[in-house]
Each structure stands twice: as C-alpha cells, then as structure tokens.
C-alpha cells in the first residue's frame, strides 16, 4: 500500500520568512515518482515538481527547493523568502507501480504581509 | 483540447437525485483519474482509467458511485441517490501513459447536495 503523510495541517508565516513543508511517504515499490502540487484559492491544482526514486539530487527553482531523502522516505519542500502569493494548500503525492497518484492531506500555508 | 475540461463547474442537487459529472481530458492522454476533495480536506482517489478500462475501482466510496469512459476520451462519473456527504469538489486529471510531467487537473465540479 502507498501512503503519503503531510503532518503539518496549517502553517502561518510572515512575508520573507523561509518555510519548509514536510512530506513523508510509504511504498514497497522500488520505482516511484514524487510530486508537489500547489492549490491556490482559485482551486486549480498546479504542478510544481516531479522527482523519480532514482534521483536523489536536490533541486532548486527560484525561491523553491526540494530535499529528497530515500533513507528517511521524505520529500520536503522549502520556500525561501516567502511571499503573500505563496499562500495556498500544498499537496505532496506519490505515484507507484499501481498507476495511481496518492496524495497527502495537504498543508495550508498562509503568508502574512 | 488545451486543458482538462470539467462540466458542470457547479451543481446543486436535491438529496436522492442522480447526478452526472463530465470530464473531457487533454487530447491524446490515455490515463484519466477522478478525485474528490471535501471542504478543507485532501484529495481522495476515486477511480483511474487507462484507455476505457478501469484497473482500479477501489476508491469508489459506495455502489452509488460509478464511472465510465468511452472512446478513450470523455469520462462520466455518476452518483446515484445523492446524499449530503457527497457534497465536495470532484476533480478530474489526465496524463499520458506515465505521468512523467505530472497530471493536468481540471478546475473541478463543485457538487452541493441539499
């Protein structure tokens, strides 16, 4: 069975603070993909990043960075110098050999000005 | 089409009525997924299609829920004898055979059962 846990239900920060969203996953597959999605107040889910299980290299894209550690089954997401526009619900997801994407419960991030 | 299209965008129905939700995936995408998002909750997997077949129906919450896909394209999610707990946003996503780039989600159908 596959499972994604996002222990942080809600996080509130002040603009320009750094924030890390945690994601821990469980799978018995050796090949799998991990994703992060953003759901702004408009409701539409926006794809942010995909990482396959064989690539543990961390990735940075602008103010966003992702830390994938297979040893701890974690795929954490950090936003540096947060902005009000980053306020959204963020979902971590796992895609494995059973061909469906399992999502975590989401973390609601509020960035206050 | 350019994106995943879902209709209607909003649906209000009376308890006990049947509803049909439609999803039109991106042209050429062979995989289609339905999820449900209740207010303030995460995404609950409902069903997945590869072509016209549904290898995984494990997420359908009850036998009142069914889905079909025809011609490898449009999918319809049907909820019979709706209950108030069915109120949620129903999201559809499509991808090519493997979601190397991730899914593309539609804007969802907000279903309210009164």
Question: Can you give a write-up of this model?
Answer:
- The complex is a heterodimer of chains A (113) and B (114).
- By secondary structure, chain A is an all-beta fold.
- In chain A, 0% of the residues lie in helices and 53% in strands.
- In chain A, a hairpin with a 6-residue loop joins strand 5 (33-39) and strand 6.
- Chain A is globular and about 45 Å long.
- With 114 residues, chain B is mainly beta.
- Chain B has no helices and eleven strands.
- Chain B has strands at residues 5-7, 10-13, 19-24, 31-37, 43-50, 53-56, 65-69, 75-79, 88-95, 104-105, 109-113.
- In chain B, strands 2, 4, 5, 6, 9, 10 and 11 form a seven-stranded mixed beta sheet that branches. In chain B, strands 1-3-8-7 form a four-stranded antiparallel beta sheet, with no helix packed on it.
- In chain B, a hairpin with a 5-residue loop joins strand 4 (31-37) and strand 5 (43-50).
- The radius of gyration of chain B is 13 Å and the shape is globular.
- The N and C termini of chain B lie far apart (33 Å).
- At the A-B interface, strand 5 and strand 11 of A face strand 4, strand 5, strand 9 and strand 10 of B.
Give the topology, please.
The complex is a heterodimer of chains A (113) and B (114).
Chain A: E1 3-5, E2 10-14, E3 19-21, E4 24-26, E5 33-39, E6 46-52, E7 59-61, E8 64-69, E9 74-79, E10 88-95, E11 101-103, E12 107-112
Parallel strand pairs in A: 2-12
Antiparallel strand pairs in A: 1-4, 3-9, 5-6, 5-10, 7-8, 8-9, 10-11, 10-12
Chain B: E1 5-7, E2 10-13, E3 19-24, E4 31-37, E5 43-50, E6 53-56, E7 65-69, E8 75-79, E9 88-95, E10 104-105, E11 109-113
Parallel strand pairs in B: 2-11
Antiparallel strand pairs in B: 1-3, 3-8, 4-5, 4-9, 5-6, 7-8, 9-10, 9-11
